[in-house]
Amino acid sequence: MIDAEEGARHEFGRNLSAVRGHLRLTAPSIFGQEIVLPLVKELLKQYPEIGVELDLSDRVVDIVAGGYDLAIRIAVLKDSDLIARRLAANPRILCASPAYLAERGTPRTVPELHGHDCIMLTPIGKWPFVIDGEVHRISLSGRFTSASVEAVRSIALDGSGIAMLTWWDVREHLASGRLRQITLEDASTEELSVWALTPSRRYVPSRVKVFLDALERALTDSPAG
Q: Which of 219, 168, 221, 210 is CA-nearest to residue 42?
């Protein structure tokens, strides 16, 4: 009831004092540090009656049990009772450093990946590729495995192998040339999206709405719009 009243005041009043309360949100580590955290800083400056608790983690948390207002997820969503809002495209990207590719060559097919050091992200396990319209999960191996997206990206930047990450994780490094995208002839990478998940309830607090609006604006340079 309090959230409903707060939301109504924000919708009809549109003033700073209507946006208040404690915002609890969770987001993937790199995306959270590079995209979400700067928005939180601006939110704290703009709305003096807002408090924020930010959980940056690559694990999937139960936002209902954890009492979160909002979760940012980059995944293929499963059916749930949560309310999902698509914010931007975020395809998986196969990439490596120019130094690694110069030394080991650039793979052009899925079978050729077996001859390379693949930097594995623990939660994925097998790399998903779209072949003839269907997703196939391929077992690959390498000398480094981590549950941390940041660690996998760092090892790839260091020239130690090929990584499969998402566009928002590597966009700046692709633009600068520190990483190069690898395009396969016999398969494509999986199309993902950035999603905002909120608990199933009719009224979304104004603190959540203003943050989501800011986040959506920040994602306008997504590769797929």
A: 210
> What would the pLDDT profile of 45-100 be if each residue is shown by its tens digit?
999 999 999 999 888 888 888 889 999 998 777 656 788 999 999 999 999 999 99
Of all residues in the chain, what percent are helix, strand and coil, respectively (each to 5)? 35, 30, 40
Cα–Cα dist 49/33, whole Å: 23
Q: At a CB cut-off of 8 Å and minimum separation 6, what does 213 contact?
A: none
> Any bridge partners for residue 95, and if so which?
163, 181
113 by DSSP, 3-state: which?
helix
H helices within the chain, ranges in order?
A: 2-13, 29-31, 37-46, 98-104, 149-157, 167-176, 206-218
| Cβ proximity of 133 and 190 under 8 Å | no
User: Facing residues of 164 across strands?
Assistant: 94
Separation between Cα atoms, residue 69 and residue 207, nearest integer Å:
9
Yes or no: say if 31 and 172 are a contact pair by the CB < 8 Å rule.
no
Q: Where are the beta strands (DSSP E) in 69-126?
A: 70-74, 83-89, 92-96, 118-121
DSSP structural state of residue 79: P
Rounded to whole angstroms, the Cα distance separating 59 from 149 reads 11
Tokens of 211: 């943050």
Residue 209, SS3 per DSSP: helix
Length of the chain: 225
The phi and psi torsions of 89 (rounded to 5 degrees) equal -75, 150
**Greater model confidence, 14 or 55:** 55
